[in-house]
Batch of 4 targets.
Target 1
Amino acid sequence: MTDLLLHQYDSSPFSEKVRVCLGIKGLAWAAVDQPVVMPKPELVPLTGGYRKIPVLQVGADVYCDSVLIVRELEARHPAPSLFPSGSGGIASALSEWTDRSFFQAAVAVIFAHVGETIGEEFIKDREKLSGAPFDIAGMKAAFPHMATQLRSHAANVAQQLADGRAFLEGEKPGLADANAFYNLWFAGSFYPPSKALFEDLPGLSDWYARVVAIGHGQRREASRAEALDAARKAEPLAAPVPAGEAAAAPGDAALVGQKVAIAATDYGRDPITGTLVGASAHRLVLRREDADLGAIQVHVPRLGFALMPAA
């Protein structure tokens, strides 16, 4: 079985970010398609309750959130690098822009126009995920403003390309390209008229085509049953935090070895409980025992997740 199992679905924008990174690295991987909405009975036993997509699985180690997934890909497969100009810190930090304000602009533009065609099941699921109403009328009203925001984000990308470079960091693609690309891919794929908001920007369409040409690496399909079986047959990493990651904050380090709960602080706040077995400035690692799968280690980013002793 392919070592890299990506729990995803093809229309997921954050999965597209990871797929582009897999393409940049030319990696072989398996797509484990998960439902777009809950329930996800073959995912939550692996994650301990985390429901968002994508999730990367390598044996009995499970990596949640695209931010940590790309960090793990770089640690496991350093060449070719996702940071071709040595910009690891700043390129990683760009996800705070692309995954938040840039992404929200794309979401608003899409759903202002297609929201009324979305099924009730999806709407209820996303309301539960976000803890807020799926306000189609509000998105329609906000469209003129959010359209300007999407164009402004795209213009920042075009500005970086203004000197004629092929990719955002120079002549080689990297994480910065994947981060910027997936939002424009999302908007253009699910509301094609949105392309008119940005495709006239100098250099942007050619750059977009170059990123598309990278592809997604060597993909195959794997069943959810295969993924669960891979977890059963594997043992979690003995050293779950890669060498070289910045040390954890003292308060986090003090909790290693204790029962803890972790949860996202933005949306999808379902807590995961287990024993904290690793921590750095970039990740938290919990070990869980599942009655069917055995020992599983769940890795989450430190940024954007809360950590507390288990009740």
Target 2
Amino acid sequence: MARQRAKAPSQRQLRVGEQLRHTLSQILARGDIRDPELADMNVTVTEVRVSPDMKAATAYVLPFADGTPEDLAAALNRAARYFRGQLGREIDLKYTPELRFAPDRSFDEAARVDALLRKPRVRQDLSDDPDAPGGPIDTGENTDSDLPDDPDRGA
């Protein structure tokens, strides 16, 4: 049986997710958390994904300075009920979603792809000149040599 792709989030899911992200960031910035692990930690909430029924949400987080993302997510998951209560007071939704926190891996993945694209062998594959090791990467932009002669340019 073929694996089905997940549907793209609806506009409402995106809007609610962004509202949750913004409100969670405000709650974390206030710093009125009793957990000593979270008290002095600066947290970046990069994204919040909401389930189609709006009853569950996953917040992707990164530590701003020190600490590992896994430890941060574990500490935030221990305090998830507190955050849900705070969200319920600040956001007007029929149901306040159950929160889960997960470490954000998107920056690691972007760095991995960037490092891969910078390898000489890959750069050679992407360059216009097959004999040039690490030649220029085609950015898709037109250069003057790609453009037809324009009589108004004086060429």
Target 3
Amino acid sequence: MEIKIIDIPKITDPRGNLAVVEGDTIPFKMERIYYLYDVPSTSHRGGHAHKELRQLIIALSGSFDVVLDDGKEQKAITLNKPDKGLLIPTMVWRELENFSSGSVCMVVASMEFSEDDYIRDYSDFKKLASS
């Protein structure tokens, strides 16, 4: 599976730390940024794959698990540091779960929203992933 944890450049300072995502920090042009917050610990987010869109997911605060499936293998990754990001390529099913209280999940996307890019049915995803 071609997922990767990347280091987000940071500047440490006694007044507080600063993390920066810009230009060549990620291997795609940023077209959309959104964030999830106030997610109940028993809720699941995601539950889809993308045909063309790539994402960088960062836990800005708190922690959560990202369960990934490329059709061949599954992997769970805990995100809990605002200076680490999870790069997710195309055609990887993702579920986000186990949100801690006060967690904030930021997603940087390579495309603007397009419903046509989503695969929302897992059996459809499995068929596409195996072809």
Target 4
Amino acid sequence: MTEDRSPAAAENPEGTAAGDQADEQPVKGRKNGLYGEVSDELATSMKSGWADTELRGLAPVDQAPYAAERRARLSAAFPGERLVIPAGNLRTRANDTEYSFRAASEYVHLTGDQTEDAVLVAEPVDGGHEFSLYLLPRSNRENGEFWLDGNGELWVGRRHSLTEAEQLLGLPCRDVRKAADELRDAPAAPTRIVRKYDAGLEAALAEVLDEEKDEELKTFLSGLRLVKDDWEITQLRAACDATVNGFTDVVRELGQAVATSERWIEGTFWRRARVEGNDIGYGSICAAGPHATTLHWVRNDGDVRPGELLLLDAGVETHTLYTADVTRTLPINGRFNALQRKIYEAVYDAQEAGISAVKPGGRFRDFHDASQRVLAERLLAWGLLDASVHDVEKVLELGLQRRWTLHGTGHMLGLDVHDCAQARREDYVDALLEPGMCLTVEPGLYFQQDDLTVPEEYRGIGVRIEDDILVTADGNENLSAALPRQADEVEAWMARLTG
């Protein structure tokens, strides 16, 4: 990283956008920067001699009409109320470096935009709402912001002008540096904000906000994503296709992973995510050997040993921020041993039962119940449950299978890996499935290394199989079906890739 970057944003009050102070006073340099004061001659030179780079005649982004329809549904749900949906701010990683920015899903869903510090505002009017998007304009070349400010365009790259953004997003755009003042000065109206994304805006509006009402807004926006439209389904297909490529990359490079560690697997999949998408959709779980019994093993610092299993749970996030969520459990040497295959096939059968239960009009929890029943039956047949319990109904009633199945069998999928998590229970886990819903089916069996209730040969084996399932008008579609699932198919696929 270049040493002399001087982020003025670090000196701004919390919640204000970069460049606020630059309009009123000189941008300060880094305390220990190599350059001192800027000469008048240099400042004058930097103001001129630049070509006009304004982009004209831009076509709207593909999701613009879909976002407009979502905003209409939001407006209808909250008549007469002002609604504030922030994108979020950059978060400091250390000193003057930040984590990569990922816009809030609620904001992205309603705008199609991914800009940090931005805010969508729905202003109540007769008959609905007028929506405005607050964004940071192009850097000001008159006051030096574009080359002296750490968030100026010569440091972090060009951003769209407000006029360009209006063409792309189909929304009137305003200067985000004025957002807090304009919202404070707006005519009195009930106001709600999506919390936890912009502390500065929350502070500015604190006197008119109500936490319970804000939670209602978040709940509604989460539920708004339950049924995916046609454009969203194309994004989920693309995410799954890229994820299949990432798994293929990993199998091809298992030899390097054996020579190094789980980190090689993590890096291999991440490379594919960055090439074909925006990023990984969540922390990749690259769990080799006994690490596969830890549900969210993201340290990925263990050995990869032939003869053991690799549980890889990973998903590519598209450039539009929709993610896949897929898991395969792979024999590191390319062949399952007898016990590994027995456990794997039990999980496969459980997943098959679960996928078969995904259909319009079925209960959301049906696929979970179907998968758990299969696993409970196998655990009984293997003699792993208490000898006094012989009835699968009793096992399920008491939840005894959960010692080894541990987690729920799936969740909604979309902009978030656990999408719609804040939706009402009656709209989600207690609801009926509808065409356009997309969910995961991911049963597993996990035998901990220190579990003295199972034979020693079981200990340290973890298996999960996960696919992304779209509810269709007449059943379902497995969006990640291009990845083999049956044990024989997995072995043959690995042999083709590594042979």
